[in-house]
Specification:
Elements: H1 2-27, H2 30-39, E1 43-54, E2 57-68, E3 72-79, E4 87-91, E5 94-98, E6 105-107, H3 116-119, H4 121-130, E7 144-149, E8 160-166, E9 172-179, E10 185-196
Antiparallel strand pairs: 1-2, 1-10, 2-3, 3-4, 4-5, 5-6, 7-8, 8-9, 9-10
């Protein structure tokens, strides 16, 4: 009976060890899974919460993002109520802004106030994959991994970015954070829904 108990205990311990080894093996290809999901992304739609931080204050709003390679962008604010229906589009004809029922207005080329390249994950991924990343990514205790684009241009107010990805939830983007040259967080994009590589007609980017 004692031998039987010891044998059962040994089998149980062995089973736990095998499960742990199997789990490590599954997580060993985090880099490969991220590449598969993000490296050659062609389009996406997302529901996000954007928070702008500065001078001890913060302002948040929710928006629907739509992007199609190589350079078509659309964002529509859904909250707060007084900004609801504000739509911005970037297409081959330029940068357009539509507020409520008003007619679309074409913005000047090079408009920086839109900060589009810091709110859309596609631009972060472009810079991230332009850099060398030799180290294997390791998930933290919450199942998240952190991707870092060390330098995103010369703008001191928008200098570096980190993207947190939830490994345990189908590699769902969790949070895109932008920091200034002093390391202060100035912009945060939190993802509620994210659907990559969907079919999007070009007409979606017309106002």
């Amino acid at each position: 009976q004692k031998r039987s108990y010891k044998m059962k205990k040994s089998i149980a311990v062995l089973a736990v060890i095998l499960l742990m080894i199997g789990n490590v093996g599954c997580r060993a290809d985090i880099n490969a899974e991220l590449d598969k999901r993000f490296k050659d992304i062609e389009s996406y739609s997302a529901c996000v919460t954007v928070t702008v931080l500065g001078n001890g204050k913060s302002e948040s709003f929710k928006m629907q993002q739509t992007w199609k390679a190589p350079d078509k962008y659309k964002s529509e604010i859904t909250e707060p109520e007084h900004m609801k229906g504000t739509v911005s589009v970037i297409n081959s004809d330029g940068i357009w802004l539509k507020i409520g029922d008003a007619s679309p207005v074409r913005m000047e080329q090079g408009t920086e106030s839109m900060n589009t390249e810091y709110m859309f994950i596609s631009d972060f991924l472009k810079d991230y994959y332009a850099e060398e990343h030799a180290d294997k990514l390791v998930e933290d205790s919450e199942g998240k991994v952190m991707l870092n684009a060390s330098t995103r241009g010369t703008n001191k107010k928008r200098f570096t970015q980190n993207l947190s990805v939830d490994v345990r939830h189908k590699y769902m983007p969790d949070k895109l954070q932008t920091f200034d040259s002093k390391g202060n967080e100035v912009l945060r994009v939190e993802f509620e829904k994210f659907t990559p590589n969907i079919k999007i007609d070009d007409s979606e980017f017309n106002l």
